[in-house]
Amino acid sequence: MTPAAQPWCQREGLALLTDLYELTMAAGYLKEHRPGHTVCFEYFFRSLPPHGGFAVAAGLEPFLDYLEHLRFADDDIDYLRSLGSFDEDFLEFLRGFRPACTVRAVPEGALVFPHEPVIQIEGDIVEGQLVETALLNMLNHQTLIATKAARICLASEGEPVFEFGLRRAHGPDGGLSGSRAAYIGGCTGTSNVLAGKVYGIPVSGTHAHSWVMSFDSELEAFRAFARNYPDKCILLVDTYSTTESGVPNAITVFKEMQAAGHKVRAAIRLDSGDLAKLSKAAYRMMTEAGFEDPLIVASNDLEEDLIADLKRQGAKINAWGVGTHLITSHDCPALSGVYKLVAVEEDGRWLPRMKISSNIEKATDPGRKAVVRYFDGQGHPVGDVLYLGDEEWPRAGTVIGRRRTQPLQEARIKDTARAESLFGVVFERGRRTLPPPLIGDIRQRALDNIASLPDEFKRLRNPERYRVMLSRAVGQIKADMLENPDQ
After folding, report:
1. What CATH number is attached to the domain comprising 287?
2. Is residue 62 part of a domain?
């Protein structure tokens, strides 16, 4: 399996993957601020997708690849010059620009929740501003798709889910990044061959209705496919009539394969019709023909609620191909991720900054923070607390903090058994601090994290809300700044 790398992020050419105002602000910062004006930005999201109880962090490794290879090429400079908005001093600055910020982050595959930092960028304000759009683009999309995949996999109750969404994805990179994120979220494999090559994700596929229709008969089509792929023979049985011809013809071919000496597991795919009813009929027909434990793959606009409903109906489906609803996150097309300035450094001290809004939910949490997760005695996460970066925090027992939207009101997490800081330094001095992890390891982290989460947070409807609170120090700073916004 290959490292989790994004080849298009390793080539020059993505420096202009940004909004124009990032560049206009960067040019202004160079004139209005002294060199080396150090700040801290944090990326977080404000809300989960509908009916969600958690999110799966994804997109960090592609962002680090982008950051490590970020260069403004000559044709980038020429294009910016043609806009007539930037002076030569700024263009020469961009020509020599190399990232040198420090990046702290929650690891990919970890569970994350609204309003807590997922990535922290510390460094020169110009650099922090330049990378904002690319970070949001990569983290918002992949976290969204990984989270959708996790919900679908929970609905399948451990049965394999294959991502089949490339043809409905939002462009080539929406397909490639989406396949990566879906695998991290728990999918078993993908139909996307490029994603298989780039990331080492297992690839899977059968055949289309056009294969069957290109032959003079369905039986001839099945025989031809079995001849070509005897060890991977999954037959699509709904081209004409699933129960009257498709399944009977498939059984005929499976028996012929057995007679020829092949070890056969009867395997079919259903792509239309009443999937519950047809799967039960197909299962009965195949087991009565002597094929125990047949593989029945279902596809056709599946998503988590439909999968859960099919399982409630006792459908005999034991593998799921999910396309459009997964790769586009059909019910929630965007994650509400934002990137905010939270602190500036002056004379060796970090001074908090805060965006204030009439909507208290949108008021940011000031200060350069750390995320600490608390666990109960059974290893289940029970709540997170946002501490100042240099603040001491308790390792167990009852943890006392403040509510985010009422920062003077006390909040508690009781009976904690241990604590874990989620942030680690992943990039500094222009390069990663660790080699890129294998995508299989990222996926396993996600699976382990999801397994450890109490069931009430994993419900498909009305999940429990996970607690994220402020430390007393952060809460007091926030209350003071709300009281005196100009101070």
Report:
1. 3.20.20.70
2. yes
